[in-house]
Amino acid sequence: MDRQSALLWMKDVSKAFPGVQALQSVSLYAAAGEVLGLIGQNGAGKSTLMKILSGVYTIDSGELYFNGSPLVIHSPHQAQELGISIIYQELNLMPNLSVMENIFIGREPGGAVFVDRRQLEQQTRAILERMHMHLRPTALLRSLSVAEQQMVEIAKAISRDVRVLIMDEPTSALSEAEVETLFEIIRELKRSGVAVIFISHRLEEVLHICDRVSVLRDGQNAGDVQVADTSREELIRRMVGRSLEQFFHRTEHLDGSVSSTEVVLEVQKIHRRGNTLNPDAVVLDDVSFSLRRGEILGLAGLVGAGRTELVRTIFGADRRRSGRILLNGREVNIHSPVDAIRLGIGLVPEDRKAQGLILGLAVRENMTLAHLDTLSRAEFVQLATERRLVTEYIERFEIRTPSMEQKVVNLSGGNQQKVVIAKWLMLTPQILIMDEPTRGIDVGAKSEIYELMHQLATHGISIIMISSEFPELLAMCDRIVCLAEGRVTGELLHREATLETLMHFCTLRRQVVSVSEGAIAL
Predict the structure, then answer these.
(1) How far apart are CA 97 and CA 373, in angstroms?
(2) Mean pLDDT of residues grouped by 10 in the chain (522 residues)?
(3) How far, in Å, CA of 487 to CA of 403, rounded?
(4) Torsions phi, psi for 209 (to 5 deg)
(5) Could you count the other beta carbons within 10 Å of the beta carbon of residue 278?
(6) What is the DSSP string of 385-425?
């Protein structure tokens, strides 16, 4: 098909944020009545591209065409008026309102003061029947399942005469039966001439429902293929087809052995339910693994795999439903982060600004925040001792700051991350959990973080590393545990792991078990 005749054409779109080139000359087109799959690893640029299309971001350069005419989208409202709607993974609905009120919020017949509820119900019922959605217009949203709430989001988009519908990970919280219901709705949208952009990490679903697939890698186009002419393996190759970066230092023991066979942490059959979308959803399903002294153990997975939920549960930030945690061979009860800290476990969180730092406080205050009990006498902090300790860690980690009294908000991302790590190392932990330790920092700072992790492991500290960047895991980790949909799907030694095998296990929907030193599917 000629791209210029497509309903939507995004041509050579570029977008940069401070220190990050999110998109570089990316092009994408979609035809009326087409289901376009948009895939790529975490951080590939999918969300940025769709936020541009839905009016959240403006482009730095490039061109947008809609129905053959040039287009500049200034706001989400303008995008909706054009018929471009997006359904995010985290649904944007009002639980205490009815189905019909959610669908027509701000556009109620009769006006905002005297709403014609009979007409509102009739219009809602017509939309629901058109899409074969079996919902009561008057039902309260909070009484619906996640799948039914997603149908309400779709009905809301249809009520605006949607022409392009973007669906971001729409099946992540759905059962197989609910997925098939959703797919039938997508087919009906396709028959109605709507262009559907389907974003998903579940490649089997992409191949099942999409007509064509566009692949992004590192903020650039990595292929545009017809589903009939491709395969799961080909899509994986396009998604991960880059060489390893040159900034890793983890070279010792990566032949498949680690410096110690001593197990310091053992997690046995951790089970947890409940998330923001569905309190009954299984978040962790009998997850088990072990961690050895001086080992860097990677946790690999895609969005919704349960990686962060797992480490938060180990750290005591979230409560588990069942399962055991053993530390140095002894079962421990971790009910809160305070318990974890006392047992020598530290957590560098995924979002350092929201969870790891108090941005308005100084470097000194942030660095000693978890260490105040040992620095205090008679409830007063021993300032001289505190300053000596902070000075030592600033020099040791080469933290670039004018002084220890500088507010941490004014530091670069890499130096902020070093402050978070220093905070935990002051407690001399035996286990350090690092959730996305290099997210949002430049290449030079990444190299310094890698070197620091290598030094910690060499000195006997055991590290659990979560990263959405598979090349990081491959280069840094002695072993990698793969998760998908809250389950362990594979465990690989360094010498066995490749980008393709990691992506394979992280997109499996069936559980696997380790056999000898490798992993096979059940």
Answers:
(1) 48
(2) 80 86 94 94 83 93 93 91 84 86 84 79 88 86 83 85 89 75 89 93 89 92 94 82 50 52 93 71 89 95 87 91 93 93 90 86 90 80 88 88 90 85 88 87 70 89 90 90 92 89 81 41 38
(3) 45
(4) -105, -20
(5) 16
(6) HHHHHHHHHHHHTT---S-TTSBGGGS-HHHHHHHHHHHHH
**Strand runs labelled E in 234-303:** 263-273, 282-292, 296-300
Evaluate whether 199 touches 166 at the Cβ level (below 8 Å). yes
End-to-end CA distance of the chain: 42
Q: For residue 379, what are the contacts with CB-CB under 8 A and spacing of at least 6?
A: none
Q: What is the DSSP letter of 149?
A: H
Tokens of 281: 């959803």
Token duo for residue 416: 């902020």
Contact (CB, 8 A) for 369 and 360:
no
Find all residues with CB under 8 Å of 38, minimum gap 6, and list them: 28, 46, 49, 50, 197, 198, 199, 213, 214, 216
Nearest to 515 by CA among 488, 485, 491, 482: 491
d(CA 370, CA 303): 30
Q: How many degrees, rounded to 5, is the angle at CA 470 between CA 467 and CA 473?
A: 65
State whether residue 20 is helix, strand or coil: strand
What is the number of other CB atoms lying within 10 angstroms of the CB of residue 388? 10
Confirm whether pTM is higher than 0.85: no
Secondary structure (DSSP) of 44-103: SSHHHHHHHHTTSS--SEEEEEETTEEE----HHHHHHHTEEEE-SS----TTSBHHHHH
Q: How far is CA 513 from the centre of its chain?
A: 25
For residue 507, the model assigns a pLDDT of 85
Contacts of residue 489, Cβ cutoff 8 Å, sequence gap at least 6 = 482, 483, 505, 506, 508, 510, 511, 512, 519, 521
Find out whether 48 and 207 touch, Cβ atoms under 8 Å. Answer: no
CA atoms within 13 A on the CB side of 468: 20
How do beta strands 380-381 and 479-484 pair? Answer: unpaired
| Residue that the structure tokens 């670039």 belong to | 400
Backbone angles phi, psi at 107, to 5 degrees: -135, 30
Secondary-structure percent of the chain, ordered helix, strand, coil, rounded to 5:
35, 25, 40
Distances 315 to 283, 320, 431, 452, 488 between C-alpha atoms, Å: 16, 11, 10, 22, 19
Report which of 369, 416, 397 is spatially closest to residue 456, judged by C-alpha positions. Answer: 397
| Six-digit token string for 492 | 């690989």
Nearest CA among 161, 181, 158 for reference residue 170: 181
